[in-house]
Amino acid sequence: MIASLPFLVGIAAAAVVNLESRQTAAQITTVDLSVNTGSPIRRASGVLYGVPDTKNQIPSSFYTGAQFTGATGWIFGGYTARFQDVLSNFQTARQFNAQFILKMSDLWGTDGTQGANGVYPGANGDFTEFDAYLAQLVADLKANGMTTNIKLLIWNEPNLTAFWNAPQAQYFAMWNHAVQFLRAHLPGVPIAGPALATAPNSADTWWTGFLSNVKSANTAPDVYTWHHEGSSKRREQRPPDKPACNVIDEYANVGEQNPSSAAWWIARFERFNMSGLRGNWLSGANLQDFLSGLLWKSGSTYFANGEWQVYNYYATSMTGFRVATTGSTDRLMDNFAVVGTNIVRILVGGRLVTGTYTLQIKNLSALGLATSGTINVTTRQFSFAGTEGQEGAPSNLGVVAHTYTGNVLSFPIFQTDTVTTWAFEFNF
Ligand SMILES: *[C@@H]1O[C@H](CO)[C@@H](O)[C@H](O)[C@H]1NC(C)=O
Ligand SMILES: *[C@@H]1O[C@H](CO)[C@@H](O)[C@H](O)[C@H]1NC(C)=O
Ligand SMILES: *[C@@H]1O[C@H](CO)[C@@H](O)[C@H](O)[C@H]1NC(C)=O
Ligand SMILES: *[C@@H]1O[C@H](CO)[C@@H](O)[C@H](O)[C@H]1NC(C)=O
Fold it and tell me: 374 C-alpha vs ligand 4 centroid, how far in Å?
């Protein structure tokens, strides 16, 4: 979904002091250092569009760790030019060893701007034009070496008339037709879908219809995707089969594009081993620029905003192995934690919440530390001055010595505004 961009202003005012507090589970987010959950995979570092068609327009230093999606026009006679845009974006993604998600419906021409001139494959059971498109696309993908590092997303948000203004049954028939064509002509290239505008829900006929259709036609996607941008709180439903390779291909509504919410989403994508592309709330030409709201520019010079600094820390500092975490039971505070070489890094994030929470770090002995003592914790603050506000590296708020007993270290997180967030680090 695309909307105009309201400006958010963050007020960064928080202090971390050596204060032991007692709180209910509703406000505790935990780390268990004894449970290794594997390598960080930067699953949340995807962007929807956000990449200019002009190569190197955004300096490469801003891309690290991201994934990209491509642009759109068969039905308007603009296929060739738009395929070149896709190819350019794919090459940018490959330069950074990122996975590329090709939105086939955009290249067909139904990217939401088609209006009443939209053409939807399979009307009256006729797939002639669609087959010509699929054959051209398959040939172009093969000719340009685009059969690895790519996922083919067949149709974006078919449950919205802005993207699919034809009967639901025609969508299911189109899906089956496309999957059978692609499996026959591009075996092994993963197919993604259904990219519905809603999370899986047993009361939603698009989901139930989709699942029963792919079951009976044997056309299940390799990667299930959907969008999660509503105002409702987090859900953990997922469709059956292949649970380890789901993609939320648009995440975070516009108000959640700030450092704290970004960290909250990162924590959850990492915990559930799911991948996500950030939603893009810019409009017009800006859609294909600014890495989906992580950058802005002054003249022609790009700069990073405070949220980019979170993704940069996530991609470049949070190395080593992941450890198990839990979010607060009110589901509004969470953390992502890694153990690197002699250092633990914990990125906390709240979902548009203020209040005092507790970070509880369990099983310190798993790192060879004593079960009681003192640990010097460094705090780094990620501030936010809005999407168009430049921010440098997180500020170092200094070291606080925390005493602990019982193999558990706890200290408070003072979430005094809804956008600022923190990373805590300690050596062992
Ligand atoms: C995510 O993957 C890790 C590593 O394979 C595993 O330990 C963990 O249980 C997985 N999490 C979920 C929720 O499946
Ligand atoms: C599709 O999903 C959107 C987003 O949740 C919802 O508002 C809309 O009602 C759905 N449309 C249909 C036709 O089910
Ligand atoms: C980790 O900590 C929890 C809670 O403090 C404890 O129940 C559990 O036994 C510990 N695990 C290990 C492997 O020590
Ligand atoms: C914590 O920092 C203090 C002050 O720099 C230092 O004296 C102390 O040895 C440190 N403690 C640990 C456990 O590293």
Answer: 8
* Mean pLDDT of the region 143-155: 93
pTM of the model: 0.66
Cβ of 37 below 6 Å from ligand 1: yes
DSSP state of 56: T
Fold of 5-39+321-427: Immunoglobulin-like (2.60.40)
Measure 271 CA to ligand 1 centroid, in angstroms. 7
CATH superfamily, domain at 46-315: Glycosidases (3.20.20.80)
User: How far apart (Å, rounded) are the C-alpha atoms in residues 234 and 248?
Assistant: 12
Which residue, by CA, sits nearest to atom 14 of ligand 3? 363
| Cβ of 374 less than 6 Å from ligand 4 | yes
Residues 357 and 201: their CA atoms lie apart, in Å, by: 31
**The predicted structure's pLDDT at residue 129:** 92
Q: Give the other-Cβ count within 10 Å of 158's Cβ.
A: 27
**Of 151 and 250, more confident:** 151
- Strands, sheet with 275-278, edge to edge from the N-terminal-most edge strand: 46-47, 275-278, 247-251, 223-228, 191-196, 150-153, 100-103, 68-69
Nearest Cα neighbor of 357 from 380, 331, 338, 339 is 331
Choice from 31, 35, 363, 364 to test ligand 3 binding pocket (greatest atom count within 8 A of CB) = 363
Distance 363 CA to ligand 3 centre (A): 6
